[in-house]
């Protein structure tokens, strides 16, 4: 597994900033449960923000997988498992993020009727997982920056 280069680190940081912004918007836009159930426009806005957050998380994960030269999984949800498998994301958080991606898939593809009360509850209770993901990725990037600096100071090959 190779370290991330500065280009990957910057792109991932930019995407993490976007995730934080989307999370802030989610918290600003999340109405009361009654309004969520009753007001289709409010509900759709929240659902779209969940979709944007989940898609951005998958983008971050895929950038890490690509940058580190890991095998690309066939499904987006499995990319989260890949990070966990290599010790780059705690298993418990990986499971919580996979549930978020599952909610996104349910909303986008409408596999089944969505229970609006359960949807609201899941969003209200689990939104902090998004920020925890960002914190974990920031820790990873700090470690990667240290690796990158040490490689520049001490090249591994000599001519």
How do the helices and strands line up, and which of them pair or pack?
Layout: H1 6-29, H2 33-38, H3 40-67, H4 76-85, H5 91-109, H6 116-126, H7 128-153
How much strand? Answer: under 5%
CATH topology: Four Helix Bundle (Hemerythrin (Met), subunit A)
Series of secondary-structure elements, N-terminal to C-terminal: HHHHHHH
CATH superfamily: bsu32300-like
Quickly give the CATH architecture: Up-down Bundle
Number of helices: 7
- Structural category is mainly alpha
Q: How many strands appear in the DSSP assignment?
A: 0
If you compute it from the alpha carbons, what radius of gyration comes out, rounded to the nearest whole angstrom?
18 Å
Low-confidence stretches: 154-159
Which range best describes the helical content: under 10%, 10-25%, 25-40%, 40-55%, 55-70% or over 70%? over 70%
Main beta sheet strand tally, sense and closure: none
Mean pLDDT: 90
**Looking at the structure, what is the overall shape?**
elongated
The N- and C-terminal alpha carbons lie at a distance of 24 Å
CATH C-level category = Mainly Alpha
Count of spatially separate domains: 1
> Which assembly state applies to the chains in this document?
single chain
Describe the fold and architecture.
- The structure is a single chain.
- Residues 154-159 have low confidence and may be disordered.
- The two termini are 24 Å apart.
- Helix 1 (6-29) packs antiparallel against helix 7 (128-153).
- The chain has 159 residues and is mainly alpha-helical.
- The chain has a single domain, classed as Four Helix Bundle (Hemerythrin (Met), subunit A) (Up-down Bundle).
- The protein is built from 7 helices and no strands.
């Amino acid at each position: 597994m190779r370290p991330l280069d500065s280009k990957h680190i910057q792109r991932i940081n930019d995407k993490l900033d976007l995730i934080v912004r989307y999370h802030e918007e989610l918290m600003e836009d999340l109405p009361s449960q009654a309004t969520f159930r009753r007001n289709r426009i409010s509900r759709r806005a929240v659902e779209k923000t969940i979709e944007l957050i989940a898609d951005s998380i998958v983008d971050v994960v895929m950038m890490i997988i690509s940058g580190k030269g890991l095998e690309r999984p066939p499904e987006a949800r499995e990319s989260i498992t890949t990070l966990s498998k290599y010790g780059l994301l705690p298993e418990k958080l990986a499971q919580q993020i996979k549930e978020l991606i599952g909610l996104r898939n349910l909303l986008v593809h409408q596999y089944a009727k969505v229970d609006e009360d359960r949807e609201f509850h899941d969003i209200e209770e689990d939104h902090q997982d998004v920020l925890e993901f960002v914190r974990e990725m920031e820790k990873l990037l700090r470690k990667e920056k240290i690796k990158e600096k040490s490689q520049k100071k001490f090249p591994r090959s000599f001519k």
